[in-house]
Amino acid sequence: MRKLLCAGAMAFVLAGCSSYGNRAIKNETAATIDQKIQDGVTTKDQVKTMFGDPLEINYTDGGREVWKYEFKTLHENGENYIPYYSAFSNGRHGKAKTVLLIFDDKGHVWHHTFAESKISTHSGVAD
Predict the structure, then answer these.
(1) Cα separation of 117 and 123, whole Å?
(2) pTM higher than 0.85 for the full model?
(3) pLDDT by residue (tens digit) across 57-78?
């Protein structure tokens, strides 16, 4: 029994955290983004130097280029480690950070936003 408890504790400690996206924005906040990016001043090249290549590039109806950077961190829910229960219900929770930049026709940031939100996933029979 003691071995089982130790093995379960070790699995709980080692398991459960994953992240993906652009690590350059991992520690950013709205305040730090506002310090680094100035609308009408910061250029595409400066943004690439700070954050690397964007995750997505799109265009507005007016033809302005939009860059998206994203970073997500997810942790396994505790109930995922309950024997048999996890076969019927499991999930993850975490945070997502997103930076959106809209550029003018001269290659300067026209407008920028930063968002941080809680996220969760769930799967299983209970869905």
Answers:
(1) 20
(2) no
(3) 999 999 999 999 999 988 876 6
